[in-house]
Every structure is written in C-alpha cells, then in structure tokens.
Write a structure and sequence with these properties.
Strand order of the largest sheet: 1-2-3
Shape: elongated
Distance between the termini: 41 Å
Largest sheet: 3 strands, antiparallel
Structural class: alpha+beta
Number of strands: 3
Radius of gyration: 19 Å
Helix content: 25-40%
Protein name: DUF2188 domain-containing protein
Length: 66
C-alpha cells in the first residue's frame, strides 16, 4: 500500500501543510485543503480499477503481421 501522510512544514517565509505520497510532496496553505486532498487520493487508490497487474500480465497481444 502507498503511504500518504499530512504534516506541517515551516518554510523560510511561511508554514505549509504537506501531503507526502511516496517521495512526492504536495504543499497546501491550510490543513483542511491538505486533508481533503489526501482523503480523495486514498479513495481513488482504493477504488476498483478495470485493469489489475495480474490481468494485464496475462493478456495476449495480437501480432500486427497477421
């Protein structure tokens, strides 16, 4: 599972709320914005998807020469 965290970061000129997803960081002005983003992201990651890695790996590709 992907780790998603929300933290407060003190920058040189201001404070920012940071959502960390793996090694990526997304900064927000308010805690509410950061938590809303993190919540939506979690829902989207957990949502069912049409292609799973297992289904994709087992798919056969058509030969374009035929």
């Amino acid at each position: 599972m992907i780790s998603i965290t929300v933290t407060l970061e003190d920058l040189a000129t201001r404070r920012a709320w940071v959502v960390k997803v793996g090694s990526m960081e997304i900064r927000f002005a308010t805690e509410a914005e950061a938590r809303a983003y993190a919540g939506t992201l979690r829902e989207r990651i957990r949502a069912p998807h049409g292609l799973t890695p297992i289904a994709h790996a087992g798919a056969k590709h058509a030969d374009p020469k035929k």
